Amino acid sequence: MHVIHLIDHFMLRGPNGSHSCLVFPPMGPSVIGLLHDHIPGEGTHLRKLKRFSIPAARQILLQALVGLDYLHSKNIVHGDFHPGNWLLELQDINELSEEDSSQDPDKISAPVRRLDGKQNAGDPRHLTLNEPLFRWIATGANLCVRIADLGNGV
What we know:
By secondary structure, the protein is an alpha+beta fold. It starts with 7 loop residues before the first strand and ends in a 7-residue tail after the last strand. It has 3 helices and 6 strands; from the N terminus they run ββαββαβαβ. The strands form 3 sheets. A two-stranded antiparallel sheet has the order 1-2. Strands 3-4 form a two-stranded antiparallel ribbon. A two-stranded antiparallel sheet has the order 5-6. β3 (36-38) and β4 form a beta hairpin.
């Protein structure tokens, strides 16, 4: 069984109360996110569904159930157990070169300009758009599923 190591933790206090925050290593997309592709040129609500191979589907389900069994052995109940809360582990992205880990040029905005023409030293020159981490998912024998969304909604 793979264990996720806690990097840090802190309390966040805001208008909706205090929340305990846990910091973990970066994780890949959810199983559901991996199965859905946006249809190019269509509205973002239109998607086409992909399928996993039978061996991959079995491996994902087995790992999710082993994780759920582990939570239950620790008297933790996951109240929202579904593939949208199963995250796929990334390969070791710390070892990627800058070139391999750089943003797709098509996913970078035009230069950002303030309406008043002013520029502060800390203002970003460009915005990066959402780029899924699909290309860095650990696959094959390294495929690993993590259960997420262990928070509570009080």
